[in-house]
Design a protein that fits this description.
The complex is a heterodimer of chains A (348) and B (164). Chain A is mainly alpha-helical and 348 residues long. Chain A contains 9 helices and no strands. Chain B has one domain. Classes of the chains: A mainly alpha (348), B mainly alpha (164). Chains A and B meet through α1, α2, α5 and α6 of A and α1, α2 and α4 of B.
């Protein structure tokens, strides 16, 4: 398998894996983690009311652990998906990497190895902690993640070196295949529209909500402490308000980032359509499914606070639609790969 | 490669490199200290309230809010600079498919590059001076440039005819 096919195949697999992880995280971890964090904050508030600083410290230690649990899982999802995006981008650049086929393949393997190990290392940070670590603050999982990150950097530096070689050789121009199929046009224009929608959503959020939410957070936390000091039952309501504010920010940020990421994904996938060996009707079905899922997920994430778990379920379904479309395209890439290999075998 | 694509691809690469360098500097010299300060301030606000030292608790809560204001914007700047750079590179690769003549395409490319630089720059300047009108105006102009350029590019992609 050539470096380009390795990167296309690995890139789509990483994106599909990252999205599947994100879907599982959203269903089984996210809400439960939010509930536990809220409970720990309530415990801290009760400790303030009881004038018990030691219990406050315990509660904040618990909150720190819960935030680390959530943060490492979000990072696993983001890093796996983004490594996939980079792999697709590198696949597009392969014809312009001035290195031997063997070196290009080695760099592709290094990149994919780093892309797999980095999210695994990040995921394990919360569970491994500092067990058996020779360092006082860095655990084995962090060492794995950092080493995988270094692999990615080495592979990227190698690719840049190859690109410079290509330009030095005097060719100096990058021209990608410009076939004008329906799939490519729809993915490009649909992807750009998604990014545009994400931008409009972000601008609206920054203009209308960001400053208001920051002021509300400061006020609610002040209310929490005032009520706790007065041993008032209003403290529990203020903690609840704080939880709702955090959820509001989370869904607005997630809707904004997901719609833009999906837009970029659609644009990247438009370039690999020539490598998807499927009948036109199936290629179009996967394109429509991908764009529909890319729109459904962020819209229903945004509506989660208004419609509750139903919207959450529909958003997860949107994510699943994108994953199915990606796997469909992956099958097409595998078939393309198989046909090239069969051709090579036939010729030899 | 035509001029519009050069503006997008090389502008995107330069912006990505700058965004990564900023991220590296931020991760090494700023982020951990800032996170410690933010988490520590909130915990201190609760601890002082438990000890009934109310003015100190209020001060710690104010410190938390101010640190978080900066933290949110600094992280946003890093992710937006790199994200916009990646978008420019991908658009640069596909820019021949935008169904306009060369001159408007070059203007769109410059508008996207200018917006991608100015928008995060305006956001980061907000941390230097909280509530600065100039910084907010810069961010608004930058994001408007990016949004308009993207709308025109999406229209250009849709105008392209499919080969039979």
């Amino acid at each position: 398998m050539s470096a380009q096919r390795l990167l296309v195949f690995g890139g789509i697999a990483l994106i599909a894996g990252g999205m599947l992880f994100g879907d599982i995280f959203a269903v089984f971890v996210l809400h439960q983690n939010g509930g536990q964090t809220g409970a720990a904050l309530l415990a801290a508030t009760e400790a303030v009311a009881a004038q018990n600083p030691a219990a406050v410290k315990d509660a904040f230690t618990r909150i720190g652990g819960l935030l680390e649990d959530r943060g490492t899982k979000v990072d696993t999802h983001v890093h796996m998906t983004d490594a996939g995006y980079l792999a697709l981008l590198l696949a597009l650049a392969q014809p312009y990497i001035g290195l031997s086929a063997a070196r290009k393949k080695l760099l592709a393997k290094l990149f994919l190895l780093g892309g797999v190990l980095l999210p695994i290392g990040i995921f394990l940070i919360h569970y491994v902690g500092l067990a058996y670590s020779p360092f006082s603050v860095i655990g084995w999982a962090s060492i794995l993640a950092d080493s995988a990150g270094a692999l990615l950097i080495v592979a990227l530096v190698g690719e840049v070196w190859g690109l410079l070689n290509y330009f030095r050789s005097g060719k100096g121009s990058i021209e990608l295949p410009q076939d004008r199929t329906w799939e490519r046009r729809i993915l490009l224009s649909g992807g750009t529209m998604l990014v545009l929608l994400g931008f409009l959503d972000g601008a609206w959020y920054a203009g209308m909500n960001l400053y208001g939410q920051e002021a509300r957070e400061r006020k609610i936390l002040g209310d929490v402490l005032d009520a706790a000091v007065a041993s008032s039952p209003a403290a529990a309501q203020s903690v609840n308000d704080y939880g709702m504010l955090v959820a509001e920010k989370a869904v607005e940020t997630a809707a904004h980032s997901h719609i833009i990421e999906f837009g970029l994904l659609a644009m990247l996938l438009s370039f690999i359509q020539p490598y998807v060996l499927l009948r036109d009707v199936w290629k179009r079905r996967w394109v429509v499914l991908l764009l529909a899922g890319s729109l459904i997920l962020p819209i229903f994430v945004f509506l989660e606070l208004k419609l509750g778990l139903v919207a959450g379920g529909i958003a997860d379904l949107g994510g699943l639609m994108v994953i199915v479309a990606l796997i469909g395209m992956l099958v097409g890439v595998l078939r393309y790969s198989g046909s090239i290999d069969a051709q090579a075998g036939g010729l030899s | 490669m035509n001029r519009a694509r050069k503006v997008l691809v090389f502008g995107g690469l330069a912006l990505a490199a700058f965004g990564m360098l900023y991220g590296l500097y931020y991760a090494v010299f700023v982020e951990h200290q800032m996170l410690d300060h933010m988490g520590g301030s909130l915990a201190t606000a609760f601890l002082r309230a438990a000890e009934r030292q109310i003015p100190e608790s209020r001060m710690a809560l104010d410190a938390y809010a101010l640190t978080k204001y900066d933290y949110v914007r600094q992280v946003d700047v890093h992710s937006h600079w790199i994200g916009l750079a990646m978008l420019m590179i991908v658009l640069g690769a596909a820019f021949d498919r935008v169904a306009f003549s060369e001159r408007p395409k070059l203007r769109i490319a410059w508008a996207l590059l200018a917006g991608s630089v100015l928008f995060p720059l305006g956001v980061i300047l907000q941390t230097a001076s909280h509530g600065s009108m100039f910084a907010s105006a810069l961010a608004i102009v930058g994001s408007a440039l990016v949004t308009c350029a993207l709308a025109v590019i999406a229209f250009g992609f849709m105008r392209e005819k499919t080969a039979s």
